[in-house]
């Protein structure tokens, strides 16, 4: 009985298992045997069982106490990274493992990013990205349940990833256990623990990691929510500050706008506006009319007319300020009307406030243009209106048109040509700005009609004018431009017919697949004769075979007859000689003379067609009783 009480005393003072064994050993030395010894052994076993159970209870109590401490620690920090670090540190200490880490998959679940790690020694560091194609983590995310392996690299119960295996091997890990971090039944991350020894995790340990993961999930989600809320609050604060700043800027702009408008309405001029804009924008400023004429300049401007033209074209095409190589160009508009351009050369980059001011200055400039009625200020508009009236149907009084033209420095009774250019898409606005400037520089007129830029320019060669417009405009637009011309016209009434001829020429070029080229009615040969408002048949014949007709008239030869027989015989001198009943050598000599008179290339396909058409017209005139006076293109009786 005394020995049995010894076991109770040991339990009371939490003696070690060795001390329990010592009681039995002492009794055996004292000669206790038989039933007494068996009873003592049984008492020892019961005492050790009670001792082990007490230890487990104490351990569980310690674990729960530590878990409670962990909960308190997780509840304190609002920062997500701090929470993750607390979770991994506590996991490693609670389960007495070598390391712990947290991985979070990307939105597309293709990779897992290590967000926190504790106890690592080599490759497994924060920010490391591992493929989510296999391993313990993939199984946990798929099943939303804890999973563990006693020896990761040799376990074939899951798919292995070469990259993940490399990291596990570098860390020297064997046993790995993982539990899902879950929010609203959906896993958003994985809590791992790893040991560098082969280890079989117990049920209590699995339960402990799951509990820690559940606790951490709630706290992490809370932190993520707070982080998102803080981000939204910060974004809202920034937006409020920006709104307040914009309101202040708008108030300043409204004040400036009012001041500039008062200046314009109280007798201000373009120069005053340019100087005020230059002062406020800390820049050199220039105002130009629609045709490119300079209205006012404040400050020193670089001599880059090509750059200015390109900027003006782009600004009016976009109908908003346009920046190009250190220069801002703002269109001066009134509805759809193009009144001019504001050019600004700042000494430093313009901020948002300054760019808004650009538009305000351009608006005030438009008001000045519309208010100013001084000669020359609205010249660009007058030039466009004059050309519109010249093209009007019914026609305007010729004398009034002549008077308006003289006021603009033009004489409508001298030779002019009508040039039309057409392009597609966004390039139309650019082309209109260029055409207005070009017409002004050439002393001509410009308007837009039927989707085409219409120019009335001084000159007598429409083909040359068309090619000049194409050569200058096409490189600027970097897109095909079709240009057609007609003329010359030498009185107000003929301008409209010249426009009609040029438009027919333009449509014919498009139909024939010649878009993007330049030509006049005269360049189209016989087709040009058909397109002409008043077909010049005699002129066509004179251009095609006039020298041959003149040679026959002066020398009474038969070159025209030989030329006709030559084409009728399929361009064969031998068959032509048979048809004419002369020797082939005679035909050859006549053809040589024809070549001298018509020049090289007379047998080319396009030119030979015009020659044959001219021969047919001569023959038809002869049959009808008329004739052609060679060299003059006039009919004779």
TrEMBL record:
Signal peptide: none annotated. It comes from the Bacteria. The keyword Ribonucleoprotein does not apply. The keyword Coiled coil applies. Residues 79-230 form the GAF domain. Residues 226-253 form a coiled coil. Keywords: Coiled coil. Transmembrane segments: none annotated. It holds the Pfam family HTH_30. InterPro entries: CdaR-like_regulators, CdaR_GGDEF, GAF, GAF-like_dom_sf, PucR_C-HTH_dom, PucR_C-HTH_sf. Belongs to the CdaR family. This is GAF domain-containing protein.
């Amino acid at each position: 009985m005394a020995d049995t009480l010894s076991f109770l005393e040991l339990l009371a003072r939490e003696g070690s298992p060795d001390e329990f064994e010592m009681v039995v050993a002492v009794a055996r030395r004292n000669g206790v045997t038989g039933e007494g010894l068996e009873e003592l052994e049984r008492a020892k076993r019961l005492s050790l069982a009670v001792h082990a159970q007490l230890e487990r209870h104490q351990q569980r109590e310690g674990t729960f106490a530590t878990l409670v401490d962990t909960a308190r620690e997780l509840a304190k920090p609002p920062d997500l990274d701090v929470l993750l670090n607390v979770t991994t540190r506590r996991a490693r200490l609670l389960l007495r493992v070598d390391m712990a880490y947290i991985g979070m998959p990307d939105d597309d679940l293709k990779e897992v990013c290590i967000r926190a790690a504790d106890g690592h020694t080599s490759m497994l560091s924060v920010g490391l990205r591992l493929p989510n194609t296999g391993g313990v983590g993939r199984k946990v995310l798929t099943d939303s349940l804890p999973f563990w392996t006693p020896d990761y690299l040799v376990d074939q119960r899951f798919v292995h990833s070469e990259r993940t295996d490399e990291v596990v091997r570098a860390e020297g890990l064997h046993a790995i256990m993982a539990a899902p971090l879950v929010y609203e039944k959906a896993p958003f991350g994985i809590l791992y623990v790893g040991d560098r020894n082969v280890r079989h995790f117990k049920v209590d340990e699995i339960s402990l990691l799951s509990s820690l993961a559940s606790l951490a999930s709630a706290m992490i989600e809370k932190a993520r929510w707070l982080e998102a809320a803080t981000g939204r609050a910060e974004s809202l604060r920034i937006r409020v500050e920006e709104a307040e700043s914009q309101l202040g800027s708008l108030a300043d702009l409204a004040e400036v706008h009012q001041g500039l408008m008062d200046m314009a309405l109280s007798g201000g001029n373009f120069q005053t506006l340019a100087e005020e804009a230059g002062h406020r924008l800390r820049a050199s400023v220039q105002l130009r009319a629609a045709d490119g004429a300079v209205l006012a300049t404040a400050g020193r401007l670089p001599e880059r007319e090509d750059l200015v033209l390109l900027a003006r074209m782009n600004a009016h095409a976009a109908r908003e300020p346009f920046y190009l190589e250190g220069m801002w160009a703002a269109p001066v508009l009134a509805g759809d009307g193009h009144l001019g351009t504001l050019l600004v050369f700042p000494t430093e980059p313009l901020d948002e406030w300054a760019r808004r001011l650009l538009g305000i200055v351009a608006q005030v400039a438009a008001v000045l243009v519309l208010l100013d009625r001084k000669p020359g200020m609205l010249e660009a508009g007058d030039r466009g209106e004059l050309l519109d009236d010249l093209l009007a149907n019914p026609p305007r009084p010729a004398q009034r048109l002549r008077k308006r033209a003289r006021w603009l420095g033009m004489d409508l009774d001298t030779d002019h040509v009508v040039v039309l250019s057409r392009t597609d898409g966004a390039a139309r606005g650019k082309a209109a700005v260029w055409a207005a400037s070009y017409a002004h520089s050439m002393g001509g007129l410009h308007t837009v009609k039927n989707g085409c830029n219409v120019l009335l320019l001084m000159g007598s060669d429409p083909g040359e004018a068309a090619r000049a417009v194409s050569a200058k405009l096409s490189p600027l637009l970097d897109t095909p431009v079709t240009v057609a011309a007609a003329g010359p016209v030498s009185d107000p009434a003929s301008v409209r017919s010249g426009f009609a001829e040029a438009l027919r020429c333009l449509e014919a070029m498009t139909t024939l697949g010649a878009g993007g080229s330049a030509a006049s009615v005269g360049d189209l040969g016989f087709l040009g004769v058909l397109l002409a408002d008043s077909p010049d048949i005699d002129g066509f014949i004179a251009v095609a075979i006039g020298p041959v007709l003149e040679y026959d008239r002066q020398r009474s030869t038969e070159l025209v007859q030989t030329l006709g027989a030559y084409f009728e015989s399929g361009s064969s001198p031998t068959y032509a000689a048979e048809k004419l009943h002369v020797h082939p050598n005679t035909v050859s000599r006549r053809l040589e003379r024809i070549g001298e008179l018509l020049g090289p290339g007379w047998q080319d396909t396009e030119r030979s067609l015009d020659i044959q058409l001219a021969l047919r017209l001569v023959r038809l005139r002869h049959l009808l009783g008329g004739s052609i006076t060679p060299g003059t293109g006039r009919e004779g009786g």
